[in-house]
Design a protein that fits this description.
5-stranded mixed beta sheet, two-stranded antiparallel ribbon
């Protein structure tokens, strides 16, 4: 059965291996240097301090005859041999003791290094254990767990902060998703209730007339159309959450002109100031952005009101601005209007779903832009969409 070492054990083993390798290298170098400094050969000359004592010894040993030079030489060789043997024995003993003590010291210090490495590895990996615990505790229902690691800003601190940021984004995303699903379910329930009511009223009659059946069919058809438009808007909003790969060169002025074509006046005056505003992105989504702004400006306007639409380019941004007259919007309500299914008035007065400005914000974010809205003192909204500008404008249409 194959066993797997933990990260703490592998780090400790790595520390000990490197320490033992470095210690062994140090012992070998020290041994070689000491062995080189203790020469194995000694000189055969008699030291001057020993010569008088050696002379007396020789004189006492040869009283019958004079001290001959060959006897003196032999005594010197015997003395040198003794010195050589003593030096060799001392050298061997010294190197043996050095090697033994060095190896014992290395073994002891290695054990201490292993214990210290195990403790240090545990302290280093403690944030990882906390991160693992937070990941296990996190779920779709509970994303409130945070690591909140303290200490120096090193790699582990950055990892923990990144994980906390990811959990925070997931928490917001899941909260928004749950709210969106609840709102969508509520909105879809309305046309279904209308259809059921219209059908039940007619079926409750013993013999419904032709006109009653036609009226029921018209009510059902209207509710079906309402549900279809709502589902289409929901699908567009869901697709916008994914990054778009299209980077076609476009002009906000041309998109605004296309969106204005075929619109009925309905007693509202439209003022246009369309200058070149080059951008890149998905033409279908940007057309929906402009159309939704115009729809919102007309739907929540007053009789005889105005809608001003303009496009300009400033430095690195292209700006689409839509200003409309209408009811006074409370300042604390402006940001909420960009949330899904949020309306300034009730649904009876207007046929919108509360998704128009939410789609505008989502499409702008997908294209790397921003949306700013300001409530006008006299009523209405001033909405500006800023998108990254490009230098190359889309090619002009061929002349006819």
């Amino acid at each position: 059965m194959r066993s797997h070492l933990s990260a703490r054990s592998r780090l400790t083993l790595l520390y000990v291996s490197l320490f033992a390798l470095g210690g062994a290298t140090l012992v070998v170098i020290t041994y070689l240097l000491v062995a080189h400094s203790l020469h194995s050969r000694t000189t055969t000359t008699i030291p001057r301090a020993i010569q008088p004592a050696l002379g007396k010894c020789l004189q006492a040993a040869s009283q019958r005859g004079g001290v001959r030079s060959d006897v003196m030489q032999k005594c010197a060789q015997v003395y040198a041999s003794g010195v050589q043997a003593g030096a060799s024995a001392q050298r061997s003993t010294t190197l043996t003791h050095l090697l033994t003590y060095s190896l014992l010291s290395l073994a002891g210090v290695t054990l201490l290094a292993a214990a210290a490495g195990l403790i240090v590895a545990g302290r280093i990996l403690r944030p990882v254990h906390r991160l693992t615990a937070a990941a296990r505790a996190a779920s779709e229902q509970n994303l409130s767990q945070r690591i909140a690691l303290q200490g120096p800003r090193d790699e582990l601190r950055e990892l923990a902060d990144t994980f906390d940021t990811m959990l925070e984004r997931l928490d917001r995303a899941f909260t928004s998703q749950r709210q969106f699903i609840a709102n969508a379910s509520h909105e879809l329930r309305t046309p279904l209730t209308l259809m059921r009511t219209a059908i039940d009223v007619v079926l409750a009659k013993p013999k419904p007339t032709h006109d009653e059946l036609v009226s029921m069919a018209a009510d059902v058809r209207q509710a079906v159309d309402h549900a279809e438009r709502l589902i289409e808007a929901l699908l567009v909003l869901a697709r916008n959450e994914q990054a778009r790969a299209l980077t076609d060169p476009l002009d906000l002025a041309a998109l605004a002109e296309d969106a204005l074509e075929g619109r009925m006046a309905n007693g509202i005056t439209t003022i246009t100031t369309l200058d070149e505003a080059p951008v890149t992105g998905d033409g279908v989504l940007l057309e929906r952005l402009v159309a939704n702004l115009l729809d919102n400006a007309e739907r929540y306007n007053i009789a005889g009101g105005t809608v001003e639409i303009s496009t300009t380019a400033h430095d690195a941004t292209s700006v689409l601005r839509v200003v409309n007259t209408g009811a006074v919007v409370p300042a604390d309500m402006v940001e909420r209007l960009f949330l899904p299914f949020t309306r300034l008035d009730d649904r009876i007065r207007h046929d919108g779903f509360g998704l128009g400005l939410a789609l505008v914000s989502s499409i702008a974010a997908v294209h790397g832009g921003t949306v700013d809205a300001t409530a006008m003192p006299t009523g209405g909204l001033d909405i500006s969409v800023r998108l990254p500008r490009i230098d190359n404008a889309p090619p002009a249409s061929p002349a006819t």
